[in-house]
């Protein structure tokens, strides 16, 4: 795999660089020691009882430095480093084609959706001026519909950054019916953070009052959060000194960061929006699949019309799990992706093909056919549709 060869070449460069650096330090220290010894001998010449010939000392130093050969040693290590670095850059130029425009196909875009994706991306990030600029330039003012909603989300997050949880808690109360079970978890998480903040910076009595008011509903015998609330109650014994207590884990800033992430997720869910920006995910998936697309573009260079008319890639594009949002079936025979018209079908031998492949193999709804992956035979009637 080309990426592995690039990685190996890079690691060789790193190894040579470390060796070169180590060799340089060693030579410099050796030269330093010889010079220090010569200086010590010269300074001792100030003692009249032990006169020293400075010229002979310098001549001896010159001989020692010549024997060390610092220039030759440094040139040798640097030469090896430069040789590997040159090979690495050539490999990059040969392997990573900088002209990514080859993977581009002249297809029709829905510019309304593209403008919406870009504007919503900026609104989601809190960059409202940039989002407004995109919409003004596109001449589609109706796309600002989500601006006010994301503005509310960022107001809640900004308040949480200064440890003000009241706006977020008010938002949860106002939307409790629409939020799912995770919304209840988030409410408990925010109340826990507020309780710990009071315990750290307020009094034990105030923290106890807050717990009785806001945490007690989560501590009922039937509540799945009962143990978590009981653990929080143990913190009351260490008011003002949680950092040095068995409950010091509760003081980690990561709890606040996770609460902000959960709030963002719940807010986006309520807006029927994904947690991650669709534009960011699309760009990231494109970057990951770009090497495969460039290879395919080079292969199809002589078939431009076929490349432009292609509706489905003839090769799989391997993407990470973060880009997999639902199950996808690709028929191992036809390489077609499963759809409503061409669903995956389970054969009696437990192998799975798409419906069209089964129909082609059987040539008749009553005729049996052999599985392409095992000796078993089956008929169309014996095959069952799979649902993901």
Short description:
The protein has 388 residues and is mainly alpha-helical. It has 14 helices and five strands. InterPro entries: CRA_dom (IPR013144), CTLH/CRA (IPR024964), CTLH_C (IPR006595), Fyv10_fam (IPR045098), Rmd5_dRing (IPR037683), ZF_RING_GID (IPR044063), Znf-RING_euk (IPR027370), Znf_RING (IPR001841).
Identify the notable features of this structure and list them briefly.
mainly alpha, two-stranded antiparallel sheet, 388 residues
Descriptive account of the structure:
β3 and β4 form a beta hairpin. The radius of gyration is 35 Å and the shape is extended. Among the domains are: 95 residues; 108 residues; 61 residues, Herpes Virus-1, CATH 3.30.40. It is 58% helix and 3% strand. The longest helix is centred in the N-terminal third of the chain and has 42 residues. The strands form two sheets. Strands 2-1-5 form a three-stranded antiparallel beta sheet. The two termini are 32 Å apart. α4 runs antiparallel to α5. It has 388 residues and is mainly alpha-helical.
